[in-house]
C-alpha cells in the first residue's frame, strides 16, 4: 500500500478501488490511468491545478481524515504534494499493473518517481537561486518538466 506523510508528520494511505477510479473521474475529471502514460493527460493537468489536485487528494484520503476538509488541505505544502503524487503513482501502478507486472517493473516505476522528485528538487533550487539573485522573470527560471529532463524515456511504460 502506498503512503505519504503530510507537513505535520501524519501518514496517509493511498489505495485504489474501482469505485475510487470512477468517483475521481466523475468529480475531478481525472483518469488515473493517465499517471502511467508518458506526457500529458488529465492526471498531469490536475497536478498543475491546485484545486483539482486537492479534490483528488480528498477523494483518495478524505475518509481517513478526522478533520474538516479545509484543515486537511492545509496539510499540503510542496513536499507533501510531491510525496502524495508519488503515492498516487504507486497506488495506480499497483491497481493496474501490480502483480501482473512483477517486482522488477515496480522497482522501475519507483526509480522513475525518484527521478521526478530529484528533478523537482533541482528546479526548486534553481528557482530559489534566481529569486535570491533578483531574477524572477520567466527567462531566469524555466519551470517546465522538459527543462528538468522529466519527459521522454524516463517515464515508466505501462506495458
Distance between the termini: 21 Å
Low-confidence stretches: 138-159
Q: What share of residues are in beta strands?
A: 5-15%
**Count of helical stretches:** 7
The backbone outline, from C-alpha atoms, is globular
- Structural class, from helix and strand content? mainly alpha
Mean pLDDT: 78
Adjacency order of strands in the biggest sheet? 1-2
Q: Number of folding domains?
A: 1
- Helix content percent band: 40-55%
Sequence of secondary-structure elements: EEHHHHHHH
Number of strands: 2
CA gyration radius, whole angstroms: 16 Å
Report the sheet with the most strands, covering strand number, pairing sense and barrel closure: 2 strands, antiparallel
Topology:
Layout: E1 2-5, E2 11-14, H1 18-28, H2 42-47, H3 50-61, H4 69-73, H5 78-96, H6 98-101, H7 103-132
Antiparallel strand pairs: 1-2
Amino acid at each position: 500500500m502506498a503512503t505519504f506523510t503530510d507537513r505535520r508528520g501524519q501518514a496517509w494511505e493511498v489505495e485504489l478501488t474501482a469505485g475510487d477510479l470512477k468517483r475521481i473521474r466523475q468529480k475531478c475529471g481525472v483518469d488515473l490511468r493517465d499517471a502511467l502514460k508518458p506526457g500529458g493527460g488529465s492526471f498531469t493537468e490536475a497536478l498543475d491545478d491546485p484545486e483539482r489536485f486537492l479534490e483528488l487528494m480528498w477523494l483518495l484520503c478524505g475518509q481517513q481524515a478526522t478533520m474538516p476538509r479545509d484543515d486537511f488541505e492545509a496539510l499540503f505544502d510542496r513536499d507533501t504534494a510531491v510525496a502524495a503524487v508519488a503515492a498516487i503513482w504507486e497506488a495506480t501502478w499497483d491497481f493496474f499493473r501490480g502483480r501482473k507486472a512483477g517486482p522488477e517493473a515496480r522497482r522501475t516505476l519507483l526509480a522513475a518517481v525518484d527521478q521526478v522528485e530529484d528533478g523537482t528538487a533541482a528546479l526548486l533550487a534553481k528557482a530559489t537561486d534566481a529569486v535570491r539573485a533578483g531574477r524572477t522573470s520567466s527567462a531566469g527560471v524555466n519551470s517546465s518538466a522538459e527543462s528538468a529532463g522529466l519527459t521522454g524515456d524516463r517515464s515508466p511504460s505501462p506495458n
